[in-house]
Amino acid sequence: MNHTSAQSAPDYQQLAQSIKSWAQELGFARAAISGIDLSHAEAGLSEWLAKGFHGEMDYMARHGLKRARPAELVPGTVSVITIFMPYLAAGQAPDAILADTSKAYISRYALGRDYHKVLRQRLQQLADKISAVAGEYGHRVFVDSAPVLEVEIAKQAGLGWRGKHSLLLNREFGSFYFLGELFTDLPLPADPPLPKEHCGKCTACIEACPTQAIVAPYQVDARRCISYLTIELKGAIPLEFRRAIGNRVYGCDDCQLVCPWNRFAAHSAETDFAIRHGLDDVSLLELFGWTEADFTQKMAGSPIYRIGYAKWLSNLAIGLGNASPSAAIASALLARRHDESELVREHVEWALRNAGYVENE
């Protein structure tokens, strides 16, 4: 980054206040500023990687400690502006869907349009507003697009504290929101972190995890996490987790749903996050009946699109294998028993046997 100052250096204190106001005008709930010293997080990151908790997410290991060193990721960075935007949309109660084995549970963040584009565009607008006051300056916008320790950065900026499920918690908004960052070479005054965390002795998230992925407070083994298994994992989902997955076909919110702080989670006013295609209350059979053309058309602009049709079907097959048995489910599974995708075939075969539609050999 090369910061070319305006004729006179801006009042950075005033600029920081303006940034926070502009962020709210752009639809972000909050903006806060941190420095770039994350050295305190390096040991924990190294240990997490050494244990293999990142699973097949090779990019996490590939970038290593660069995740904790913003100035190595973007040379010249001296300040990070972090924003968050709530995404929870009004819709069918999650608990009701999870309790109905015929329904498909989709993580609340994926019910609307893909958040990456929404946040990136707004962050770029924020960057442009800063440029109008500060002149040309070095900056980069990130929304899940680089090795950024975003929770640690947001925590350092005072936007919340890390919950035992490893997500950022905020007293006013809980944890149902997206984070984004603007790395800059502007020496903006940093906001103080919160004086303490507010989870206390609560372990609701740890106890609620269907696959025991929260192996210790603040530590998640992604290889056991349903979000990882249904989204990031490219191959077959390990047998040991398939029954525990239940009807969760894309992601999992259990650790957030039981968190007391999410009683205060506000619904988002952002229209892009409104529920599409009735995905908050839809049957597994309906989704399993989609053709690849249906999937491509309906999931365009959705974060679900990136997992691809075969992964989508294989996740749904697990849900159908865990559902209360019915002739319709048996027929649908048998119809895909010889699917062209090996991944789909394997999960369909498991579903048929788990539900007793065919005998185990």
TrEMBL record:
A Gene Ontology BP annotation from the UniProt entry: tRNA queuosine(34) biosynthetic process
Location of this chain's protein in the cell: Cytoplasm
HAMAP family the UniProt entry points to: QueG
Function: Catalyzes the conversion of epoxyqueuosine (oQ) to queuosine (Q), which is a hypermodified base found in the wobble positions of tRNA(Asp), tRNA(Asn), tRNA(His) and tRNA(Tyr).
Annotated residues for binding of cob(II)alamin: R67, D144, L168, L179, S227, C252, D253
Pfam name, any one: Fer4_16
Molecular function in Gene Ontology: 4 iron, 4 sulfur cluster binding; cobalamin binding; epoxyqueuosine reductase activity; metal ion binding
Record's protein name: Epoxyqueuosine reductase
Subunit record text: Monomer.
Record domain 4Fe-4S ferredoxin-type: where: 190-219
PROSITE patterns attached to this UniProt entry: 4FE4S_FER_1 (PS00198), 4FE4S_FER_2 (PS51379)
Active site: D144 (proton donor)
Any one cellular-component term (Gene Ontology): cytoplasm
Coiled coil segments of this chain: none
Protein family membership: Belongs to the QueG family.
Cofactor(s) required for function per UniProt: cob(II)alamin; [4Fe-4S] cluster
